[in-house]
């Protein structure tokens, strides 16, 4: 599938996609442009993200704001709608984007993505593979970490999820990322077929049964390389840890979860927020040992055992995964692709108008 192969923007100006529009770092600088996503904050602190489209307006129960008033404005401007309601306009941060982008599956929350990048030691230029792509939230963070000179190969079993992820990645980066390759199929089969043994620096798995990938991970991961697992339940965490210990080719796994609690700040009324982002998933990290080396046999008080009855209950529904309808997936894929296409069409029309005699470029 040609769209799933690694995309390299060769022969173009740095910071400019094949369509001529800014991408990457260049897309994050300068005035607001047509087709760009902008985060509006009203006077009560409520935020909404819109895609700038000439000739259209953002409507609320308190009037409307023409998109044309925002196009060309400097980031951080404050604008007024038709009834003098003020809005603060900024480009959405990564954390804002992943929570508002089209999705077919639950996204990896920013707090967990940050932990994966840091505790997994994902660095610029690293060669990384990941599996379950979902809606592409973690892929975006990994691509930012490895940079244009790095390499991220993502594996996804469902084509609908791959389409959604591709649209979201191209939206935030302004086009295909030069370090990204996405493939369809089961990770444990495809990764050993497509990646050379010992050629990968980091492996990140967000899937139902990561213990099934032990051999595949051990094959492609370089000695000293880091394997990060993101799982939802305690039972998944336990079985993955015991499988890693029994395998002997990895270090003793470390596991944790993170919780984020905001604070209310208003004069002397400084207190914790009533709401917090608590459990979203468990993270587990282990490292590949050298070939032929057996890991240290750390003393444990008890050894976990899993009965046949336990193993028969490993289904998505049993561990709390919510089923996603095909209709919702198709709609999310269309939304993600539409955002990219709208931006490209607007840019193409503006470039054509600039080059046409009598257009804006001749005034």
Automatic annotation (TrEMBL):
Family annotation (CDD domains): AdoMet_MTases (cd02440)
Matching entries from PANTHER family are given as: TRNA (ADENINE(58)-N(1))-METHYLTRANSFERASE, TRNA (ADENINE(58)-N(1))-METHYLTRANSFERASE, MITOCHONDRIAL
InterPro entries per record: SAM-dependent_MTases_sf, TRM61_C, tRNA_MeTrfase_Gcd14
Q: Where is the tRNA (adenine(58)-N(1))-methyltransferase catalytic subunit TRM61 C-terminal domain?
A: 99-264
Which of UniProt's keywords are assigned here? Methyltransferase, S-adenosyl-L-methionine, Transferase, tRNA processing
Q: Write the protein's name.
A: SAM-dependent methyltransferase
Composition bias of kind Low complexity appears in 1-19
Annotated stretches, region: Disordered: 1-47, 318-363
Q: Name one Pfam family in it.
A: GCD14
PROSITE patterns for this protein:
SAM_TRM61
**A GO-annotated cellular component:** tRNA (m1A) methyltransferase complex
Q: Which GO terms describe its biological process?
A: tRNA methylation
Q: Where in the sequence does UniProt note compositional bias of the Basic and acidic residues kind?
A: 34-46
The terms under GO molecular function for this entry are: tRNA (adenine(58)-N1)-methyltransferase activity
């Amino acid at each position: 599938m040609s769209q799933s192969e690694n995309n390299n923007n060769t022969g173009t100006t740095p910071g400019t996609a094949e369509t001529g529009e800014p991408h990457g770092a260049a897309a994050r600088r300068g005035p607001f442009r047509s087709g760009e996503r902008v985060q509006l904050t009203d006077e009560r602190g409520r935020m909404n993200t819109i895609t700038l489209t000439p000739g259209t307006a953002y409507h609320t129960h308190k009037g409307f704001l023409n998109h044309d008033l925002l196009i060309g404005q400097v980031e951080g401007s404050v604008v007024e709608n038709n009834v003098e309601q003020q809005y603060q306009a900024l480009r959405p941060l990564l954390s804002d984007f992943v929570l508002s982008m089209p999705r077919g599956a639950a996204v990896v929350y920013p707090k967990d993505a940050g932990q994966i990048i840091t505790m997994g030691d994902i660095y610029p230029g690293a060669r990384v593979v990941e599996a379950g792509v979902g809606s592409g939230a973690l892929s975006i963070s990994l691509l930012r970490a490895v940079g244009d000179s790095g390499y991220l190969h993502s594996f996804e079993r469902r084509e609908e999820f791959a389409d959604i992820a591709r649209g979201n990645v191209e939206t935030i980066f302004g086009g295909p990322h030069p370090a990204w390759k996405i493939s369809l199929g089961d990770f444990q089969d495809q990764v050993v077929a497509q990646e050379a043994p010992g050629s990968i620096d980091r492996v990140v798995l967000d899937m139902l049964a990561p213990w099934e990938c032990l051999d595949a991970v051990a094959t492609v991961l370089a000695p000293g390389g880091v394997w990060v697992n993101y799982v939802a339940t305690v039972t998944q965490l336990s079985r993955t840890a015991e499988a890693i210990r029994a395998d002997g080719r990895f270090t003793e796994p470390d596991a944790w979860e993170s919780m984020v609690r905001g604070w209310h700040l208003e004069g002397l009324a400084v207190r914790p927020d009533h709401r917090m982002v608590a459990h979203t998933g468990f993270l587990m990290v282990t490292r590949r040992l050298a070939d032929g080396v057996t890991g240290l046999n750390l003393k444990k008080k008890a050894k976990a055992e899993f009965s046949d009855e336990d193993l028969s209950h490993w289904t998505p529904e049993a561990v709390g995964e919510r089923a996603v309808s095909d209709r919702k997936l198709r709609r999310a894929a269309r939304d993600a692709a539409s955002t990219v296409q709208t931006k490209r069409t607007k840019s193409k029309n503006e470039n054509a108008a600039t080059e046409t005699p009598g257009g804006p470029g001749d005034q």
